[in-house]
Amino acid sequence: MLDHAITRIENLRVEFETKAGTVVGVEDVSFEIGPGETVCVVGESGSGKSVSSLSLMRLIEFGGGDIAGGRLLFDRKEGGEINLADVDQDLMRTIRGNEIGMIFQEPMTALNPVFTVGRQLTEGLRVHRGMDRDAAEARALELLREVRIPEPERRLKQYPHELSGGMRQRVVIAMALACKPRLLIADEPTTALDVTIQAEILALIDRLKRETGTAVMFITHDMAVVAQMADRVVVMFRGNKVEEGTAEEIFENPQHPYTRALLAAVPKLGEMRGKPLPEPMKLLGKDAVTPKPIPGTDEVLLKVRNLTTRFPVKGGFFRRTIANVHAVEDLSFDINKGQTLSLVGESGCGKSTAGRSILRLVEPMSGSIELGGKDIVALNPRDLRTARLDMQMIFQDPFASLNPQMNLSDQVAEPMRNFGTLKGKEMEDRIAMLFDRVELPRSFLRRYPHELSGGQRQRVAIARALALNPKLIIADEAVSALDVSVQAQVVNLMMELQAELGLSFLFISHDMAVVERVSHHVGVMYLGRIVELGPRAAVFEDPQHPYTQALMKAVPIADPRKRKSEKDLNFKPIPSPIHEVGYEPGPSEYDEVTPGHYVLTSDSGY
């Protein structure tokens, strides 16, 4: 027992009232966090880890939960220890944000879309700290610098949608730290972020914790992040704590079978050394060996040449174009039938824009895209619609891409209705077959998206993408927000489908260990260009470009004895991709280092 713990959770029990009766979210959980200590709470979705943190913030009531038992002791700055379980909401409002800060998983939902970043950052300071406008703005600028946001003065005037995911998450962290809380709760704060930004944000939270003595409760399912951050680890499974210990104890000598399975399922960078083809991932508790490695074919399905996409920046009184965002610059690659090309890079490097440009969800400025010999760029709207039968997209956030008011069967049927491919009984059979394919029970056909977990929703999104029998699927961060175990299932599912249906994937991701598992070829993107492209083994085992090397170095390792310190991460901030009108960058020129392995030679600025 710690003498002066900042927070102590004792025998917490949380229940939810549903139509089907009482559901227990957390059964009986106790642990404590001392000053300057990071306790990582790990487990899969549904294990009760977020429920515990929402109970501490007393936000669980707003989500239909009820603290049915136990004590939540919190040591305040002044006024000693109180039990948060019986505090009224008025006092909670003072404590929330002021003494307990929270970083949520999804930065877009944590920020208010109608207020500028500056307004949202200064609000807490003015409410809790009684600062005037100028003092609050000065502190906001200082906070943005602390979380290493480039051009902070400009960012204060921007709205959340103008920032990339990584930038938004940094703003959320700055907001949580604004009032120097005693306890910081970080709920999966880096799940949706790139390796490099994740490494920086972890180092940032760690540094702030050391400087301020804040206690940190860090919720995650990523064991590599746990190894990087944790002083102590609490492992949760189905609403109970199954194991607790120091990071070294948990990683080197796990006692509970669930902890062992969790550690075994972690995809590790470098496991694929010497293997020429993609391979299925390990599943929790059982080793799946059914899908064989997938060779694919040598026939080119998608041919992209000199693709360039820019977005205008409007300004001034007449909203004229004053500059352009060079999101994708002179991109060329091929994807063969039945194979996977992965595009990796940090947020803001243009990988998602590249995927959207290929589907013409964003109009490219120049370049050619050929899918099965058809020139996609030259098609008129009617023919483009027909061409979309062959290409589909799976998005990062399945909740945002599914319609909350339609049941799942209708959502999977929608593409078939739109294109009139199947009707009546045939369509019903195909929907049932697709549900079988993505391993969802048929009883789910009548359910709605909110009744599913993240992994199940993502399977619905995959079923919907498969509805029209496409040749190419663009998966934009399709597994980045899922747990290790669910991620392995979804990745294996995608690979099985690839083997059986001969699908080609453009896999956009920042998770290097997953990319290493699934790819035939890998393209590394930086500032809108591919800086290195080649067969997976070549890029991973012999990275040539300095940026690729830096990216590989930032991947966290699931071993607490191999922690990265801030000085290992020598990332240069990404320069701005915004250039004045009339700026014309040079073409991308490559050296072929070994057959098929290309490295950018023209000045890439890294």
Automatic annotation (TrEMBL):
GO terms for biological process: peptide transport; transmembrane transport. Transmembrane segments: none annotated. Belongs to the ABC transporter superfamily. Residues 7-263, 302-552 form the ABC transporter domain. Keywords: ATP-binding, Cell membrane, Membrane, Nucleotide-binding, Transport. It is a peripheral membrane protein. This is ABC transporter ATP-binding protein. It comes from Thalassococcus profundi.
